[in-house]
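User:
I would dearly like some help making sense of a protein record. Take your time, and here it is.
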Amino acid sequence: MADRNHIVAQLGPTNTGKTHRAIERMLELDSGVMGLPLRLLAREVYDRVRGRVGDGAVALVTGEERIEPRGARYFICTVESMPVHRTVDFVAVDEIQLASHRERGHVFTDRLLNARGREETWFLGSDTMRDVVRTVAPTAEIVTRTRLSRLRYEPPRSLAGLPARTALVAFSVAHVYELADRVRAAKGGAAVVVGALSPKARNAQVELYQSGDVSHLVATDAIGMGLNLDIQHVFFGAVSKYDGQTVRRLYPGEMGQVAGRAGRFKADGEFGVTREVAARETLSARLIEAVETQRFEPVRRIYYRNDALDFESPQSLRASLRRRPPYGFMRQPGQLGDERALELLLRQPEIARTVAHSPARLALLWEVCRVPDFRQSAQGAHVRLLAQLFGQLTSVSGRIDSDWIEGRLRDLERPDGSLDVMMQRVAFNRTWAYLAHRRDWVTNPEGLRERVLALEEQLSGALHEQLTDHFVEGRTHVGVVRPIPQDVFLEDDVVVSRSVTLGTMRNLSFVPTPEAAVWFGSSSVRRHGRRACAAEAQARALRFVDAPASDISITDELQLAWEGQAVARLVRGKRLDGPDVALLPLDLLEEKVRSQVRARALHWIQSERGRLFGPLEPDDVRGPLRGLLYLLVSHLGVVPRRDAESLVRALDGADRKRLGKMNVRLGAKFVYARDLLKTGAQPFRAAALTVWEGERDLPVLPDAAVAPRTSWSSRFAHGLGYPRYGKRCVRVDLVERVAVFLRKHVPSKGTVALPPEPMNWLGCAPGEWEAVVVALGYDVGAE
């Protein structure tokens, strides 16, 4: 990547004026694009810029909302929707530390690498990104910004003791509703802000707070991303969150991002935790100091996904999505939602036949897979929608049927339903708003956009009214537990009763919706939900028990997955080469079936181990050969020669011949089993190493004999068979090839003139090549 213009990194904590400065600088130039992390924030900045330059000069571009005047010079966008191929004078990307976010990070990383303005490019975000920016944009001017006000820690308080102008923060919608209901009882009312709100509903709720109608705001961590609110105090109603994989404590930087919303401009702010939180968990003095000073550990890892895709075949598409990152501190995010949808759709025979020999159809399928699941519905329901879209787009008309869309929109217009149902309708309407901007997919894009915008207005108004009814004094009280309507049933992995969604079946467990748990009582919802899911869960579990080994795989989160459902996770076993399994909750299964699932999962692990290591464990070997093979297996197929030297010297000719038939090599530096270095063996070996080391995520695996600038630890690199030499990790068979070449072509004593052949094999410059030569025992001299 070449730095094509002047790059400025404005780095610092919240309330430092970074976004304000970027807007001002953009408006000094003739054209510009700003990428922001949230649709709500993009709308806020758009309204601000529109007030400065007029409606005709500025565009708003998000996934589901586009206002693009013909003469627009400034484009305010979500980061995902930035028109990266448009040539403009100025480009800014906000909250660049989100490059470390597993789901969205690869988009921010792409912008760091590729988004450039003709004259200036600004990256805005936390100072924790300083090292990353210096690496990917070495010519960047780094400007450090400090807070305009102080941030101080406050002792814990009860909900009744929370001061006015307080934002109370939780990390699930259910907890937000619970806290808002309690604040209503103690303080008379609260505004509610969660990420799923539409801009109109969010603005109406914020206006309740900003106008002083209520003095408290209860919100998720969505408020941490730059939304401008008059907040003097931030109190945490929880300091742990579910991150999509596990419940964990907040990282200091995450806490600092949210706490930093306290105080505005030069007005000081305070942060703290509620007494309930303090009774369970203590904030360390070190953490408090880090948040007060807004100084956090630097970001060590960001996510990357290749976007130069190959649509010649499904196999080439998969391979291109897995192409190696350009830097070692970048890692691939694993299978994201669009990739999971792709795999599930390719299992449908008709779709597989349609794309088998058509790169254009395969590219279209990938575009369909990228339609966001705004509802966060069960995966099966979203994939069925995508299959319908793809079927219509590959029909004779090549368009999505207008009558079909209209029928879906009419379903959303219904005025009845709970708050949960209303939020689901708002979310589903976003899907049609997204599709309305695909001119090549719909017959009347302008008419559809008008239709969905009008429907959003209608739904947003109703949603705001319901929120106010529930959480402001004088309205209906949400704390009253209602009876669950009858006729509870499971449909597309969603448990519903009339128009009310109770929860979803996920990974053979029932997960209640936050709203249902609050309104109907958690125990009642779980009882009804489990009853509705039990038969289907049992049937799926038994299908897993009988599933062929090829249908089971290890995910990047070290879970065993089958048909998109995780059933167990790998854990450390008694030996490095033999990981164990721990079942996920699977709370819908009877104990007998749980035992069968565990037995199948364990049998799969043992079978995979046997497939890889069985050839190295024959029953008829004795003496030094048996010892050497045991050493190889217990080290996953790669052992430094020095650790095996005594056993190697004791081998006789028959032993060495036997090793040759097993494809085991006795190298100068390593003893290794060549079959265990192949691509098919790497996932299991890497998973075994990872759980043995106590890590939770599978590292990015190599697809070549050299892994440049990898972020693996030296111990992991050796265990995988890629020992580190300088900035590169080199597979042991290539190390041995280099060693053989050096023995033949350079003197055993004295300095080594660097020959070109091994440098070409390794794909490295002389400075990197020297590290390999020195490690092999040679002195390096000039050519």
Summary: The two ends are 30 Å apart (CA to CA). Residues 475-481 have pLDDT under 50 and may be disordered.
